[in-house]
Amino acid sequence: MAEVSGLDKEFQEYFEALDRSRGQDRCYICRRTAAEVKAFFGFDEDGIPTEAQNFGLEDVVLEKTDIMSYRGLRPVCAVCQLNFDAIFMLSEHDVLRGLQEEMEHDREKLWPDHPD
Asked: 69: closest CA among 14, 21, 16, 22?
């Protein structure tokens, strides 16, 4: 049996994650694509900063494309991971669980009865 190289392993993880998420290459939480996550951080799809000249950036390139994780139950983007990190660093686990409960069971109270 041949040993799987690093790149082959990454492709294998990617396709397995796509299978788990029914072929959707988007963040499970926010639904951003990899290109949208790169744009959020200020990079084109090729990893070049979009406004390098405006900010005086030189030789800045997003070399690694670790902006989307495919190793969990579903794909998760770096933006959502950062948001979760902030929630957890603030020790607001219970707040997050409470919000999830409200969104699942009491969503009517979260939104206005009628639009203005």
From this structure: 14
pLDDT digits (tens, 9 = 90+) for 79-113: 999 999 999 999 999 999 999 999 999 988 888 87
Q: Report the 10 Å Cβ neighbour count for 15.
A: 12
Residues 32 and 18: their CA atoms lie apart, in Å, by: 14
pLDDT greater than 70 at residue 43: yes
Dihedral through CA 11, CA 14, CA 16, CA 22, nearest 10? -140
Nearest to 64 by CA among 7, 18, 116, 22: 7
Q: Which two tokens stand for residue 47?
A: 């990893």
pTM of the model: 0.71
If one compares 55 and 105, the residue with the highest pLDDT of the two is 105
Q: What are 1's two structure tokens? A: 């049996």
Closest CA to 78 of 33, 12, 109, 112: 33
The amino acid occupying position 66 is D
